[in-house]
Amino acid sequence: MVDYYDIDDILATGEKVPSIFNITVPGLGYLEGNPGKPINEGTKVELPLWLAEQLAHLEAPDGTPFISLLEPESLNVKVRNAIRTDPVALDVHSILPNYYKMAEKYCSFFSDEELSEIIKQMIKERSLEIYSYANNSSKQMNSRFMLSLDEFEKRLFKIASESNRQMKNWLKE
Amino acid sequence: MSIPSHLHQNLMPSEVNFLAENEMIQILPRYSMKSIQLIGTKIPNLRALRREKVPIWVALILKSQGKCNIVPPKWLELGYLKEKYDEEIKNPFKFSDLPWHWIEISKMLLSKAADDLSDPSHQLRSIIQDLKEIRLVKSKKGFTELNESNIALTGLSLLEINEIRPFVLGVMNKLREIHETIDREGEEEGEEEDDDMD
Q: Does any CB of chain B come closer than 8 Å to the CB of residue A147?
Protein backbone atom coordinates (compact mmCIF):
# COMPACT_ATOMS: atom_id res chain seq x y z
CA MET A 1 0.00 0.00 0.00
CA VAL A 2 2.50 2.59 -1.09
CA ASP A 3 -0.20 4.99 -2.15
CA TYR A 4 -2.22 4.87 1.04
CA TYR A 5 -2.40 8.65 1.39
CA ASP A 6 -2.45 9.44 -2.31
CA ILE A 7 -5.74 11.15 -3.03
CA ASP A 8 -5.61 10.29 -6.74
CA ASP A 9 -5.13 6.67 -5.85
CA ILE A 10 -8.18 6.77 -3.60
CA LEU A 11 -10.23 8.38 -6.34
CA ALA A 12 -9.02 5.88 -8.89
CA THR A 13 -9.99 2.93 -6.72
CA GLY A 14 -13.47 4.42 -6.31
CA GLU A 15 -14.06 3.99 -10.02
CA LYS A 16 -16.74 1.40 -10.86
CA VAL A 17 -15.69 -1.65 -12.81
CA PRO A 18 -17.91 -4.33 -14.34
CA SER A 19 -17.73 -7.74 -12.71
CA ILE A 20 -19.68 -11.01 -12.66
CA PHE A 21 -20.63 -12.98 -9.56
CA ASN A 22 -19.44 -16.55 -9.86
CA ILE A 23 -21.60 -17.84 -7.02
CA THR A 24 -24.93 -16.99 -5.48
CA VAL A 25 -24.53 -14.89 -2.36
CA PRO A 26 -27.47 -14.54 0.05
CA GLY A 27 -28.43 -11.03 1.12
CA LEU A 28 -26.34 -9.12 -1.37
CA GLY A 29 -29.25 -8.37 -3.70
CA TYR A 30 -29.15 -4.68 -2.88
CA LEU A 31 -26.14 -4.40 -5.16
CA GLU A 32 -28.50 -4.78 -8.11
CA GLY A 33 -31.47 -3.08 -6.50
CA ASN A 34 -33.17 -6.10 -4.89
CA PRO A 35 -32.72 -5.48 -1.17
CA GLY A 36 -33.08 -8.56 0.98
CA LYS A 37 -32.78 -11.03 -1.91
CA PRO A 38 -29.70 -13.07 -2.76
CA ILE A 39 -27.52 -12.09 -5.67
CA ASN A 40 -27.47 -14.81 -8.28
CA GLU A 41 -24.62 -16.54 -9.95
CA GLY A 42 -23.81 -14.89 -13.27
CA THR A 43 -25.16 -11.47 -12.32
CA LYS A 44 -23.28 -8.59 -13.82
CA VAL A 45 -22.79 -5.66 -11.43
CA GLU A 46 -20.66 -2.56 -11.32
CA LEU A 47 -18.51 -2.50 -8.22
CA PRO A 48 -15.94 0.05 -7.09
CA LEU A 49 -12.47 -1.16 -7.84
CA TRP A 50 -11.38 -1.38 -4.21
CA LEU A 51 -14.19 -3.82 -3.48
CA ALA A 52 -13.97 -5.75 -6.72
CA GLU A 53 -10.26 -6.26 -6.30
CA GLN A 54 -10.72 -7.89 -2.91
CA LEU A 55 -13.67 -10.01 -3.98
CA ALA A 56 -11.83 -11.25 -7.03
CA HIS A 57 -8.96 -12.38 -4.82
CA LEU A 58 -11.14 -13.97 -2.14
CA GLU A 59 -12.29 -17.51 -2.72
CA ALA A 60 -15.46 -19.22 -1.65
CA PRO A 61 -15.03 -22.55 0.21
CA ASP A 62 -15.16 -24.51 -3.05
CA GLY A 63 -12.24 -22.58 -4.47
CA THR A 64 -13.93 -20.30 -7.00
CA PRO A 65 -13.37 -16.60 -6.48
CA PHE A 66 -16.48 -14.60 -5.57
CA ILE A 67 -16.42 -12.53 -8.69
CA SER A 68 -14.59 -12.32 -11.99
CA LEU A 69 -13.44 -8.96 -13.19
CA LEU A 70 -14.43 -7.92 -16.68
CA GLU A 71 -12.51 -5.47 -18.76
CA PRO A 72 -13.79 -1.95 -18.08
CA GLU A 73 -14.82 0.22 -20.98
CA SER A 74 -11.93 2.57 -20.36
CA LEU A 75 -9.46 -0.14 -21.31
CA ASN A 76 -11.33 -2.12 -23.95
CA VAL A 77 -10.12 -2.89 -27.43
CA LYS A 78 -11.68 0.21 -28.88
CA VAL A 79 -9.81 2.50 -26.52
CA ARG A 80 -6.60 0.54 -27.00
CA ASN A 81 -6.84 0.93 -30.73
CA ALA A 82 -7.52 4.62 -30.32
CA ILE A 83 -4.36 4.92 -28.22
CA ARG A 84 -2.37 3.02 -30.81
CA THR A 85 -3.62 5.21 -33.63
CA ASP A 86 -3.00 8.58 -32.04
CA PRO A 87 -2.37 8.94 -28.31
CA VAL A 88 -2.29 12.71 -28.55
CA ALA A 89 -5.77 13.02 -30.02
CA LEU A 90 -7.36 10.89 -27.32
CA ASP A 91 -9.51 12.71 -24.76
CA VAL A 92 -8.18 10.91 -21.70
CA HIS A 93 -9.90 13.14 -19.20
CA SER A 94 -13.36 12.33 -20.50
CA ILE A 95 -12.64 8.60 -20.34
CA LEU A 96 -11.35 8.72 -16.77
CA PRO A 97 -9.88 11.62 -14.78
CA ASN A 98 -7.38 9.22 -13.24
CA TYR A 99 -6.74 7.14 -16.29
CA TYR A 100 -3.13 6.15 -15.62
CA LYS A 101 -3.81 5.03 -12.08
CA MET A 102 -6.63 2.84 -13.31
CA ALA A 103 -4.54 1.43 -16.12
CA GLU A 104 -1.75 0.76 -13.66
CA LYS A 105 -4.07 -1.21 -11.40
CA TYR A 106 -5.35 -3.26 -14.28
CA CYS A 107 -1.90 -3.97 -15.61
CA SER A 108 -0.87 -5.37 -12.28
CA PHE A 109 -4.10 -7.25 -11.77
CA PHE A 110 -4.12 -9.05 -15.08
CA SER A 111 -0.36 -8.85 -15.68
CA ASP A 112 -1.32 -7.42 -19.02
CA GLU A 113 1.99 -6.76 -20.68
CA GLU A 114 0.45 -5.59 -23.92
CA LEU A 115 -1.57 -2.95 -22.10
CA SER A 116 1.45 -1.74 -20.15
CA GLU A 117 3.41 -1.32 -23.37
CA ILE A 118 0.60 0.67 -24.94
CA ILE A 119 0.30 2.88 -21.89
CA LYS A 120 4.03 3.51 -21.76
CA GLN A 121 4.06 4.54 -25.39
CA MET A 122 1.10 6.77 -24.71
CA ILE A 123 2.83 8.49 -21.79
CA LYS A 124 5.89 9.18 -23.91
CA GLU A 125 4.04 10.67 -26.84
CA ARG A 126 1.62 12.69 -24.78
CA SER A 127 4.25 14.00 -22.37
CA LEU A 128 6.24 15.34 -25.30
CA GLU A 129 3.18 17.26 -26.37
CA ILE A 130 2.63 18.45 -22.81
CA TYR A 131 6.19 19.72 -22.70
CA SER A 132 5.68 21.75 -25.86
CA TYR A 133 2.54 23.27 -24.43
CA ALA A 134 4.29 24.01 -21.14
CA ASN A 135 6.93 25.95 -23.04
CA ASN A 136 4.36 28.24 -24.65
CA SER A 137 1.85 28.29 -21.86
CA SER A 138 0.87 31.90 -22.43
CA LYS A 139 -0.80 31.10 -25.73
CA GLN A 140 -2.81 28.00 -26.32
CA MET A 141 -4.30 27.52 -22.88
CA ASN A 142 -7.75 26.80 -24.24
CA SER A 143 -6.82 24.21 -26.77
CA ARG A 144 -8.60 20.91 -26.93
CA PHE A 145 -5.51 19.00 -25.95
CA MET A 146 -5.18 20.82 -22.64
CA LEU A 147 -8.71 19.80 -21.73
CA SER A 148 -8.00 16.16 -22.48
CA LEU A 149 -5.26 15.79 -19.85
CA ASP A 150 -5.74 13.39 -16.99
CA GLU A 151 -4.78 14.34 -13.42
CA PHE A 152 -1.23 13.06 -13.66
CA GLU A 153 -0.69 14.89 -16.92
CA LYS A 154 -2.05 18.09 -15.46
CA ARG A 155 0.46 17.87 -12.66
CA LEU A 156 3.18 17.22 -15.18
CA PHE A 157 2.14 20.25 -17.18
CA LYS A 158 2.16 22.36 -14.08
CA ILE A 159 5.66 21.45 -12.95
CA ALA A 160 7.05 21.70 -16.47
CA SER A 161 5.64 25.16 -17.05
CA GLU A 162 6.68 26.24 -13.57
CA SER A 163 10.31 25.33 -14.14
CA ASN A 164 10.16 26.94 -17.55
CA ARG A 165 8.73 30.12 -16.09
CA GLN A 166 11.43 30.26 -13.41
CA MET A 167 14.10 29.87 -16.02
CA LYS A 168 12.66 32.61 -18.20
CA ASN A 169 12.32 35.00 -15.29
CA TRP A 170 15.87 34.37 -14.19
CA LEU A 171 17.23 34.98 -17.67
CA LYS A 172 15.41 38.29 -17.76
CA GLU A 173 16.86 39.49 -14.46
CA MET B 1 8.96 20.73 5.18
CA SER B 2 7.99 24.29 4.90
CA ILE B 3 9.51 25.01 1.51
CA PRO B 4 7.08 24.71 -1.40
CA SER B 5 6.91 21.32 -3.02
CA HIS B 6 8.41 22.33 -6.33
CA LEU B 7 11.60 23.24 -4.51
CA HIS B 8 12.00 19.91 -2.74
CA GLN B 9 13.71 18.12 -5.57
CA ASN B 10 14.87 20.96 -7.69
CA LEU B 11 16.97 24.08 -7.49
CA MET B 12 15.86 27.48 -8.58
CA PRO B 13 17.89 29.06 -11.37
CA SER B 14 19.07 31.68 -8.90
CA GLU B 15 20.37 28.93 -6.62
CA VAL B 16 22.24 27.36 -9.50
CA ASN B 17 23.64 30.79 -10.21
CA PHE B 18 24.75 31.01 -6.60
CA LEU B 19 26.64 27.73 -6.99
CA ALA B 20 28.26 29.02 -10.15
CA GLU B 21 29.56 32.07 -8.31
CA ASN B 22 31.99 29.80 -6.50
CA GLU B 23 33.82 28.90 -9.67
CA MET B 24 37.28 30.39 -9.95
CA ILE B 25 38.11 33.05 -12.48
CA GLN B 26 41.23 35.03 -13.33
CA ILE B 27 41.33 38.71 -12.56
CA LEU B 28 43.77 41.50 -13.19
CA PRO B 29 43.76 43.64 -10.03
CA ARG B 30 44.38 47.36 -10.27
CA TYR B 31 45.21 47.76 -6.60
CA SER B 32 47.05 45.66 -4.08
CA MET B 33 45.25 43.88 -1.32
CA LYS B 34 46.39 41.51 1.41
CA SER B 35 45.17 37.95 1.26
CA ILE B 36 41.98 37.10 3.15
CA GLN B 37 41.34 33.73 4.71
CA LEU B 38 37.64 32.85 4.43
CA ILE B 39 35.90 29.74 5.68
CA GLY B 40 35.44 28.12 2.33
CA THR B 41 38.16 29.69 0.31
CA LYS B 42 41.15 31.95 0.41
CA ILE B 43 41.64 35.13 -1.52
CA PRO B 44 45.33 35.30 -2.39
CA ASN B 45 47.52 38.37 -2.07
CA LEU B 46 46.49 40.72 -4.83
CA ARG B 47 49.16 42.82 -6.47
CA ALA B 48 48.34 45.38 -9.10
CA LEU B 49 48.49 43.99 -12.63
CA ARG B 50 49.38 40.48 -11.59
CA ARG B 51 46.88 37.82 -12.58
CA GLU B 52 45.30 35.90 -9.74
CA LYS B 53 42.52 33.34 -9.48
CA VAL B 54 39.59 34.23 -7.23
CA PRO B 55 36.00 33.04 -6.93
CA ILE B 56 33.61 34.78 -9.33
CA TRP B 57 31.68 36.47 -6.53
CA VAL B 58 34.86 38.16 -5.32
CA ALA B 59 35.74 39.14 -8.85
CA LEU B 60 32.33 40.70 -9.36
CA ILE B 61 32.54 42.74 -6.16
CA LEU B 62 36.00 44.04 -7.03
CA LYS B 63 34.85 44.73 -10.56
CA SER B 64 31.85 46.74 -9.38
CA GLN B 65 34.19 48.88 -7.29
CA GLY B 66 36.47 49.35 -10.26
CA LYS B 67 39.35 47.56 -8.55
CA CYS B 68 40.03 44.89 -11.10
CA ASN B 69 39.51 43.69 -14.64
CA ILE B 70 38.15 40.23 -15.22
CA VAL B 71 40.01 37.97 -17.62
CA PRO B 72 37.22 36.19 -19.46
CA PRO B 73 37.47 32.40 -19.54
CA LYS B 74 38.82 31.10 -22.81
CA TRP B 75 35.51 29.56 -23.86
CA LEU B 76 33.64 32.89 -23.59
CA GLU B 77 34.75 34.06 -26.95
CA LEU B 78 32.98 34.33 -30.26
CA GLY B 79 35.19 31.97 -32.27
CA TYR B 80 35.09 29.20 -29.70
CA LEU B 81 31.33 29.39 -29.23
CA LYS B 82 30.75 29.43 -33.00
CA GLU B 83 32.85 26.29 -33.23
CA LYS B 84 30.70 24.67 -30.56
CA TYR B 85 27.58 25.74 -32.39
CA ASP B 86 28.81 24.09 -35.60
CA GLU B 87 29.63 21.00 -33.55
CA GLU B 88 26.05 20.94 -32.25
CA ILE B 89 24.73 21.06 -35.78
CA LYS B 90 27.11 18.41 -37.05
CA ASN B 91 26.25 15.89 -34.31
CA PRO B 92 22.49 15.83 -33.95
CA PHE B 93 22.63 13.19 -31.21
CA LYS B 94 25.38 14.58 -29.07
CA PHE B 95 25.79 17.64 -26.91
CA SER B 96 29.02 19.53 -27.35
CA ASP B 97 31.28 19.84 -24.40
CA LEU B 98 30.68 23.11 -22.58
CA PRO B 99 31.57 24.06 -18.99
CA TRP B 100 29.24 22.84 -16.25
CA HIS B 101 28.15 26.42 -15.51
CA TRP B 102 28.44 28.03 -18.94
CA ILE B 103 25.04 29.72 -19.00
CA GLU B 104 25.34 31.24 -15.53
CA ILE B 105 28.92 32.43 -15.92
CA SER B 106 28.31 33.95 -19.33
CA LYS B 107 25.21 35.70 -18.02
CA MET B 108 27.05 37.14 -15.04
CA LEU B 109 30.01 38.33 -17.07
CA LEU B 110 27.86 39.74 -19.86
CA SER B 111 25.78 41.78 -17.48
CA LYS B 112 28.46 42.89 -15.05
CA ALA B 113 31.74 42.88 -16.89
CA ALA B 114 30.81 43.35 -20.53
CA ASP B 115 33.70 45.77 -21.09
CA ASP B 116 36.25 43.08 -20.20
CA LEU B 117 35.09 40.61 -22.81
CA SER B 118 37.04 40.24 -25.98
CA ASP B 119 34.04 40.38 -28.31
CA PRO B 120 31.05 42.74 -28.53
CA SER B 121 28.47 41.60 -26.02
CA HIS B 122 25.50 41.63 -28.40
CA GLN B 123 27.26 39.11 -30.64
CA LEU B 124 28.11 36.91 -27.67
CA ARG B 125 24.56 37.11 -26.41
CA SER B 126 23.16 36.04 -29.73
CA ILE B 127 25.51 33.08 -30.15
CA ILE B 128 24.80 31.97 -26.58
CA GLN B 129 21.09 32.23 -27.26
CA ASP B 130 21.52 30.13 -30.41
CA LEU B 131 23.48 27.51 -28.50
CA LYS B 132 20.88 27.35 -25.76
CA GLU B 133 18.09 26.93 -28.24
CA ILE B 134 19.71 24.23 -30.32
CA ARG B 135 20.54 22.28 -27.17
CA LEU B 136 17.01 22.65 -25.87
CA VAL B 137 15.61 21.35 -29.14
CA LYS B 138 17.97 18.40 -28.89
CA SER B 139 17.03 17.51 -25.35
CA LYS B 140 13.39 17.78 -26.33
CA LYS B 141 14.02 15.38 -29.17
CA GLY B 142 15.60 13.10 -26.61
CA PHE B 143 12.36 12.94 -24.61
CA THR B 144 10.94 10.50 -27.15
CA GLU B 145 13.64 8.08 -26.04
CA LEU B 146 12.75 8.25 -22.36
CA ASN B 147 12.40 4.95 -20.57
CA GLU B 148 11.66 3.78 -17.06
CA SER B 149 15.21 3.15 -15.92
CA ASN B 150 17.88 5.51 -17.16
CA ILE B 151 18.69 8.63 -19.08
CA ALA B 152 21.91 9.88 -20.61
CA LEU B 153 22.66 13.55 -20.12
CA THR B 154 26.26 13.65 -21.25
CA GLY B 155 27.36 17.16 -22.08
CA LEU B 156 24.41 19.00 -20.55
CA SER B 157 25.19 21.65 -17.99
CA LEU B 158 23.74 21.91 -14.50
CA LEU B 159 21.27 24.64 -15.37
CA GLU B 160 20.01 22.79 -18.44
CA ILE B 161 19.56 19.61 -16.46
CA ASN B 162 17.89 21.53 -13.70
CA GLU B 163 15.38 22.99 -16.12
CA ILE B 164 14.17 19.68 -17.49
CA ARG B 165 14.52 17.68 -14.29
CA PRO B 166 11.01 18.05 -12.81
CA PHE B 167 9.39 17.10 -16.08
CA VAL B 168 11.70 14.21 -16.89
CA LEU B 169 11.47 12.78 -13.38
CA GLY B 170 7.67 12.94 -13.52
CA VAL B 171 7.50 11.04 -16.79
CA MET B 172 10.12 8.50 -15.77
CA ASN B 173 8.43 7.83 -12.46
CA LYS B 174 5.15 7.14 -14.18
CA LEU B 175 6.83 4.88 -16.71
CA ARG B 176 8.49 3.02 -13.89
CA GLU B 177 5.21 2.59 -12.04
CA ILE B 178 3.57 1.13 -15.12
CA HIS B 179 6.62 -0.97 -15.88
CA GLU B 180 6.69 -2.47 -12.41
CA THR B 181 3.10 -3.65 -12.58
CA ILE B 182 4.15 -6.57 -14.72
CA ASP B 183 5.97 -9.41 -13.03
CA ARG B 184 8.73 -10.27 -15.38
CA GLU B 185 10.11 -13.64 -14.55
CA GLY B 186 13.84 -14.15 -14.64
CA GLU B 187 14.45 -10.46 -14.36
CA GLU B 188 16.50 -9.21 -11.50
CA GLU B 189 14.87 -7.45 -8.63
CA GLY B 190 15.44 -3.84 -7.78
CA GLU B 191 15.49 -2.00 -11.04
CA GLU B 192 16.24 1.37 -9.75
CA GLU B 193 15.67 4.76 -11.10
CA ASP B 194 18.89 6.12 -12.38
CA ASP B 195 20.14 9.16 -10.60
CA ASP B 196 22.20 10.52 -13.45
CA MET B 197 20.28 13.67 -13.03
CA ASP B 198 22.01 14.91 -9.93
A: no
